[in-house]
Amino acid sequence: MAKIKTLYFCQNCGAQSAKWIGRCPSCGEWNTYVEEVVEKTVPDTAANAWKASSSVGGTSKAARPKPLGEIIFEEESRLNTHDDELNRVLGGGLVPGSLVLIGGEPGIGKSTLMLQIAMQLNGLRVLYVSGEESEQQIKMRAERLGRQQPGLYILTETNTQNIFRQIDQLQPNVVVVDSIQTLHSTLVESGAGSVSQVRECTAELLKYAKDTGVPVLLIGHITKDGSIAGPKILEHMVDTVLQFEGDRHLTYRILRTVKNRFGSTSELGIYEMQGAGLRQVSNPSEILLSQRSEILSGLAIGATLEGNRPLLVEVQALVTPATYGTPQRSATGFDGKRLQMLLAVLEKRSGLRLGQHDVFLNIAGGLRLEDPALDLAVCAAVVSSLNDVPIRGEICLAAEVGLSGEIRAVSRLDQRLGEAEKLGFAEMYISQFNAKGLDLARYGIRVHPAGRLDEVLTGLF
Ligand code: TYD
Ligand code: MG
């Protein structure tokens, strides 16, 4: 007879305690402890659950140390997902035996993306496990995507033991699970979506992936504050965490790497949600630069870098006389504090009277950017709107602005210059420190090196 044991789990960070506590000592949140029944038939078998239900043996034989030199590593062993954006964020394809978590708000398109990827893996056996939708609903979505994949199998099941039984029979090459919050394991008593279930089910999937070398793509929901629902521990357990985000009112979706054991974490994939699924956007700068028929004031183009990918984005500013006592400052897609700082620099170092003006800033295309190289474009957009003087369309900017109004160098300027040139820009304002050691003649673009903010503003207006 199994012993029933209960523990209290913090629903925010997954910390556990033998008794209820009001404030989590680990993450500091209040009232997050919930009692959950943890019943284990045999201790230590939790992570072995997939084996318990399967007839394959011998896979979990004890590991032995091996000299590093003897370990064979093949770069080509990564699986091509036939989706350039996904391949990029994964660091060059799907690594065998990896557990990838795809997080995102409800309705953003996680299921669509995963089904689409599953349908592109021609020649492979793919198992799509869904605890969220019925077979008919998935079929309907697949019809909409309009592709054929004879090797794609759909399983609507939420019990992990049953799932592993089916996996054992089907022997798929790739497994997709939609979503971790709907799964439950018989080894844990608490309800699906609870901290202990999420943790247990992830542990079982992880063990399965590592033992068999089959990559598992796991969908996870995100709470309002942007963290993946369920314990933080989930993020630590998986190999890669991808975040699917975007404004639901806009059609663009961004796939961002939050964590990656096999690649860089600053990669970005861009999709467009269309009637027939998600379309890869291979040249994002074109969509980010909004279609302009005439040149308006308050717009400046910044050459930014997301991961290894140069992007030219339109920074839009609106500066109007304040109607109420305290002027408003509002930024969308850009750090509000940084905007305040840049406004203070403009006020103090360039003598602009912004104290009586409301300032609104927006990055076109619904992107959220943190690259300091956008500073100069932000300043230029603000000044352009304040004076109502447009900036010529063929100009772009890439430099950080320091507190004393100095123009600072940015990383990988050559890539930014290359992208700007490709998109037909004729001039670029950069820091004089970046200009040193750079063969400017190589680029078909006129470069204006500057040391102070004033020099840029005089050049522009
Ligand atoms: P879905 O993948 O169900 O989101 P999630 O799994 O993240 O909750 O995506 C739902 C949205 O996508 C829904 O509003 C309809 C839209 N959609 C399209 O615009 N085109 C399509 O081809 C598909 C399949 C969905
Ligand atoms: Mg879904």
From TrEMBL:
Residues 75-222 form the RecA family profile domain. The middle region has homology to RecA with ATPase motifs including the RadA KNRFG motif, while the C-terminus is homologous to Lon protease. InterPro entries: AAA+_ATPase, DNA_repair_RadA, Lon_proteolytic, P-loop_NTPase, RecA_ATP-bd, Ribosomal_Su5_D2-typ_SF, Ribsml_uS5_D2-typ_fold_subgr, Rubredoxin_2. Residues 358-461 are annotated as: Lon-protease-like. GO terms for biological process: proteolysis; recombinational repair. It comes from Hymenobacter actinosclerus. One of its GO terms (cellular component) is cytosol. The gene is radA. Keywords: ATP-binding, DNA damage, DNA repair, DNA-binding, Hydrolase, Metal-binding, Nucleotide-binding, Stress response, Zinc, Zinc-finger. ATP binds at G104, E105, P106, G107, I108, G109, K110, S111. Pfam families: AAA_25, Lon_C, Zn_ribbon_LapB. CDD domains: RadA_SMS_N. Plays a role in repairing double-strand DNA breaks, probably involving stabilizing or processing branched DNA or blocked replication forks. DNA-dependent ATPase involved in processing of recombination intermediates, plays a role in repairing DNA breaks. Stimulates the branch migration of RecA-mediated strand transfer reactions, allowing the 3' invading strand to extend heteroduplex DNA faster. Binds ssDNA in the presence of ADP but not other nucleotides, has ATPase activity that is stimulated by ssDNA and various branched DNA structures, but inhibited by SSB. Does not have RecA's homology-searching function. Belongs to the RecA family. RadA subfamily. This is DNA repair protein RadA. A motif (RadA KNRFG motif) lies at residues 259-263. One of its GO terms (molecular function) is damaged DNA binding.
